[in-house]
Amino acid sequence: MRNFIKKTIIAFWVFMVFISCDKETPETINNEVPEITTSSIKISEDINEDQTLSNIVEDPNKVDYLVTDLVKINEVLTIEPGVVIAFEANAGFNVDGIIDNGVLIAKGTKSESIVFTGSSKIKGFWRGIRIFTNDVRNEMDHVIVEYAGSDEIVPNIKNGVKAGIALYYQPTSFVGSLKISNSIIRENDGYGLAVERKCILRKFENNSFKNNSKASVIVTASSVGALDSESIYTGENGYDGVEIVGYADRLEQDTTWPSFDDGSSYMVSSTVEVKAKLTIEPGAIFEFEANQEMVFRQDQFGPNDGLLIASGTPSKPIVFTAIDKNPGYWKGLRFQSSVRNILDYCIVEYGGSDPIAGSYTCNIGLEKVSGYSPPKLSVSNSKIKNSSGCGIVVESPESIFSNNNNNF
Fold first, then answer.
1. Is the pTM of this model over 0.85?
2. What is the pLDDT of residues 4-21, one digit of tens each?
């Protein structure tokens, strides 16, 4: 009987190990930084014709290709599973849309990842990968991007940022798009991933961000809804979460912003203007930088009113707070739209840096704009606290406000 129990326990643990090994996760990708050998092939010129990079050396710790300059990809570059590419100082890939329509297809597998690394283990050693074409074939799956961020890679977000991977936008011209999944973005000086306004994340699933000097991801407001809940944004990054840049990028398409399973949060580093329906999932946390706000505008001549549906739960409230937990650090939530905005099981705190409802400072403000219909807001089951001014200000008697079971 004792042997039977012992065999049963062993069989159970073997089964559990098999299941855990079979689970597809970025953590299973090889963590070793590969070494350059005499067999590594140098790439120093632009890619001007379709090309495939094959896995030359089977050893995943050996470099297959060494990029020695900033190389433009003007045609289709396909990278096969297991390929290891190292970059010399300040080198990088630009998937270019100026001359031709460059495409990057880097699809590894669970057992054979594709590695983009520096020829030295120094954070910020090479430039990174910039995607400048809106081609549905641009894809990175089961890849590692590490030690990038030597120079500014895109100019139109926060006056220029460094990143391991960046989607670039040029007004009235080119837009970058990418599918990225099952990948690790780590050890970069700057952000892990930067997405400029109007750029397109066609797919974003099961990615992991570690030890990047800035936030895991920086995106403008229109791209937040493309992110997933399951990716891992916490891992000793400069900010363990997603930074939202709102200026020059009003939210004008209905979208849902996810909460993150790993408990990471959003940092709102500039004011977000909403002129569409924004739904926020329970458990989402927003930390605002100094003097910033989220404002829900009214569209006088069309249907594009800003609308907030923030319905948390008792165990997963939605939190609007400050980076620095001091009263009056950020402005607050400003409602001007005449559709019924909803805050349910939310926490709103530390607002009131500047007036958002007439001359009043507060965490939440209903502000009627002259010539527009009055704003509407329902607040229930929520905690409104630590403002430098009022909790909620209803600036006009015409405003339609519902207040139920809240704690001030």
1. yes
2. 444 444 444 434 433 333
